[in-house]
């Protein structure tokens, strides 16, 4: 059953890949950083942030003109976040317990503006909103490739790397499964828990990844991670940039 589920997910994501153009908003990095913090503040799962950025990136790629109005692009970003929460969370969306509602109120967005923006996004994407994200593959990858005693530690590091990657990279630039596998490999390598060549073989056999693309993506993730380490502030606001110690063996541990 799980193997069939994985095969279906891989088939669907590849059928989408050929149809998607890649175009980024000029302030995507700032938007992603704010949305990642908002997801963290609201204690929502990481896949909601990933789906938010996927919806945002796909919407931007389908718009014919650049969005230059700061107020409007913030409304678009928050609306993508609202849509992702409705699709992925069982948290009730109302005006009493949502930080997004407070932001909407502070920015004087009317209910009609919010509704219309969500409708514009949905119509632009032909209501095709429930797209796969890298996190959807993680429970399958961890089950197939890792012994039980290592899963919790690896999972924490993979989610950290995924958050960094999704903040820094347009989510349309690579397949969700490829990004998930690259982050898994980078986490295992950083923690020195398992033979890297053994993981390569399992991933290539199970996920049908291209080895060159996989290694390139892993290298990109590791470079992004090192860049984040160099720019950490004493009191970081984002969970994915939490202080990380590096031992003499290059093992990374999140405090």
TrEMBL record:
Annotated InterPro entries: Cyclin, Cyclin-like_dom, Cyclin-like_sf, Cyclin_N
Domain of life assignment: Eukaryota
Keywords: Cyclin
Gene3D superfamilies found in the cross-reference section: Cyclin-like (1.10.472.10)
Domain Cyclin-like: 33-123
A UniProt-annotated Pfam family: Cyclin_N
Protein family per UniProt: Belongs to the cyclin family.
PANTHER family: CYCLINS (PTHR10177)
Protein name (database record): Cyclin-like domain-containing protein
Organism from which the protein derives: Rotaria magnacalcarata
Source lineage: Eukaryota, Metazoa, Spiralia, Gnathifera, Rotifera
